[in-house]
Amino acid sequence: xxxxxxxxxxxxxxxxxxxxxxxxxxxxxxxxxxxxxxxxxxxxxxxxxxxxxxxxxxxxxxxxxxxxxxxxxxxxxxxxxxxxxxxxxxxxxxxxxxxxxxxxxxxxxxxxxxxxxxxxxxxxxxxxxxxxxxxxxxxxxxxxxxxxxxxxxxxxxxxxxxxxxxxxxxxxxxxxxxxxxxxxxxxxxxxxxxxxxxxxxxxxxxxxxxxxxxxxxxxxxxxxxxxxxxxxxxxxxxxxxxx
Amino acid sequence: xxxxxxxxxxxxxxxxxxxxxxxxxxxxxxxxxxxxxxxxxxxxxxxxxxxxxxxxxxxxxxxxxxxxxxxxxxxxxxxxxxxxxxxxxxxxxxxxxxxxxxxxxxxxxxxxxxxxxxxxxxxxxxxxxxxxxxxxxxxxxxxxxxxxxxxxxxxxxxxxxxxxxxxxxxxxxxxxxxxxxxxxxxxxxxxxxxxxxxxxxxxxxxxxxxxxxxxxxxxxxxxxxxxxxxxx
Lengths: 243, 232
Known about the structure:
Structural class of chain A: alpha/beta
Order of helices and strands of chain A: EEEHEEHEHHHEHEHEEHH
Helix content of chain A: 25-40%
Shape of chain A: globular
Shape of chain B: elongated
Distance between the termini of chain A: 31 Å
Largest sheet of chain A: 6 strands, mixed
Number of helices of chain B: 9
Oligomer: heterodimer
Structural class of chain B: mainly alpha
Largest interface: A-B, 31 and 22 residues
Radius of gyration of chain B: 22 Å
Mean pLDDT of chain A: 93
Number of strands of chain A: 10
C-alpha cells in the first residue's frame, strides 16, 4: 500500500540537519505498524513524509503504486485517502464538532451535506459522543478531542490512518479511551501507522514494530521479537529505559 | 436665557436658512459612501495581499508577486493619503468629473496596505497545526486558508480591523481636496458662506464622534457573535 524507497529528509537553512538517513520500507494493506524510538530519532518526520506534510529531500514514496513524491502528483487527492491524527488534535476551534467532521467530505464533494451529517453522527455514536455534535472543541476534554480528531479523519473513508503520538498530549487517565478507539479501528481492519510511546498498545495491536534511531530503522520485527528479544544494542538500551 | 435664544437664532441662520442643512446631509452621505466603499476595497486588497505574502513564504513561484506586494505596502504607507488623493485625481484620473469614485478607490487602496499587514499578522498567529490538519484531510491551500485559517484570523484581529475602519472614516475628511463634498467640506462651505466659525465645525465634529461610537458598538456586537465558539 505504501512503499518508501531511500527516503531522506534534511532540515535547516543549508540542509545541515540530517533527520532521515535513507529509509526503505513497505506498509501492506491491513497492516498495523507501530514506530517507536527515542525523541529526535525521526519517527514523526518519517510519518509526516508519508502524506507529504514534510517534503522529502531525497527518495521516493509510492501510495497504491502512485509516486506521490513526483511533483506532478495531485497530493490533495492522495491525502483524501490518508487520514492523519496529530499529537495536539488540531480540531478547528471556530467550528462545531459536527462541522469539524463534515467540512472536508462536503467541501471536497465526497458526500452531500446530508450524507456527511449521517456518517458523522454514526461515527460519533460509535465512539460514544453523539451528544457533543453541536459543541465546540473548547468544551471537550483532551481525550474527547482526540477521539473526535480520529472520527474527523475517518469520515473521509481513508485507506490508511497515520497517528503521530496521538496520546502524548493527554492526561494519563484519558489515554485509555483514545487507545480503545484505535484498537477498535485496528480490529475493523484499518491499515495503520502509529508513532507512539505506548508500548502496551504496540504489543497488543502491532503486526510489526519499527525501532527508529538517528534517522534509520535500526531494528524491526514482531512485537514479540522487539520487546522480548531485541538484537540491536540501541533497541535494548531504549527498551530498558521505557519498559 | 437670552444667550440661548440668540444661539438658537444663530443655528437657524446658519443651517436652516436657504436649506443649507441639505449640503450637510449630502456631505454626510458622501462620507458614508466613501468610507464604506473604501473599506470593502481595502478589505479585499488587504486579504489578497496578505494571502500572497503568506503563500509566497517558501514558494519561489510567487516571489515576483511578493515583491510587488512589498512595493505596494511601502509606497502606500510611505506617502500621506492626501498626496495619494491628489495623485489619483490630478495625475491618474485627469478626466474624472466626479471625485467620489476616485476618493473611494484611493482610500480603498490606502486602507488595503494597512489591512494587509493586520490580516497577515492574524494569519501568522494561527497555529501551524490548523493548516496541517486541513491539508491532511485533502483540502487545498486555498480551501484551508478560506475555510479554516481566515475565519479564525479575522476573529482575532477584529479589534484591529475596527481601528482601521474608524481611522478610515476620519481620514475621508480630506476628500474635499479633490472637489468632493464630504461632511467636512460641507461644514466648511457653510462656515464660509455664513461667517459662523463655531457651530458648523462643532456640528461635524459631533457627527464624526457619533458615527465612530455607532461603529464601535456594531463591532462589539460582531465580536461577541464571533466569540460564541469560545464559551466553555
